[in-house]
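dumping this here before i forget
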Amino acid sequence: MLTACGNDSANPTLPAPALKTVSPSATFIATNVRPTLYKPLAKEACQALNDNFAVTFRVSAGMGEGAFNDPKNGDLGNGCVFAMKGTGEEFVSAPEAINMLRTSLTPMNWVEDKAYQANTPTLSAAAFRKEKGLLTALVEWTPTPDAKCPLDQVATCKLTPKQQLFVMTIKAAQR
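structure:
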């Protein structure tokens, strides 16, 4: 036997749930949502790039699949993702790392898209195109903790190559 609020009747009466009417003007509309337009390059193409990076930079490149974002227009998708770490002994400078990348990609028919170029004292960015593919590269560095160089003064700090920690992230995808 059910009991509702102290009513011992065999057929308790429960209040009807309140229903709210949603007006058409209250309908949720997603804005600024970009469709997934990019997909990874063929596995063989990703492996060829990874092999190229290992030779060019003399450091092991971690390779996997991950999120891809075209920084110019916001198009999204997935792509091959490569990550390399080293010191100033391997990378010298962020612009020089991009220059090395440019030199290594040219024989593979990747052409730089200068609209993606960016440089600051601690980073360089670039992008390259090949057919329907887009490859983006970001090289960033920070001083080691023992360098005692504040990030806002990094351009004027006297650092040895070993006191510069570089991270290079390259992503490649196709439409």
